[in-house]
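Internal tracking record. Fields below are filled automatically when a chain is submitted to the structure queue. Please do not edit lines marked as system-generated. If the sequence contains nonstandard residues, flag them in the REMARKS field before resubmitting.
Queue: standard
Priority: normal
Entity type: single polypeptide chain
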Amino acid sequence: MKNVSLIIRQATISDIEAITDIYLDGAKYQFSLNKKLYNIPNREVVLAHNKKQHASSLGKTIKKEGITLVAEHKGQVVGVIGVTLHRHEEHSLLRVKVSAELDISVKETMRGYGVGTKLIQAAEVWAQKHGAERMMLHTYVGNERAINFYKKYNQFEVIGLVLAKPLKNLKKTA
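SYSTEM-GENERATED OUTPUT FOLLOWS
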């Protein structure tokens, strides 16, 4: 893995177009892994969603429950990570009281340059500062490149498995 110089900072609303493009890079890769499960959404639809979803939150920490960070290289946003805290009540099966869920994406041309690792490290610092005892993330089981990256470079372990079953469309009867 080659490392490049990066600035890790909190995302702002002016990053929304770059964040959208990075998300679509990830969508294209996921689609290549499983065309039956994934699709590549329309950029304008994703951009409109991101603007609506993040317009009031980017550049701020929302009630100390989450943050979006970006990695910048030579003035360009090349990676993004969302961190969301989850508070687990006493009735929870989990031993930890607070966990941090990560959602990460790195521009295709910047994978293998340490961008993801630096984003995860920054997310870890933020999560610990806000009381998290564990970080978690989800990825497609067929995405071996991502799984190996999380395990090898970032000390994640597989602790669960998500199972899915497609449902048939049933016609409603009156």
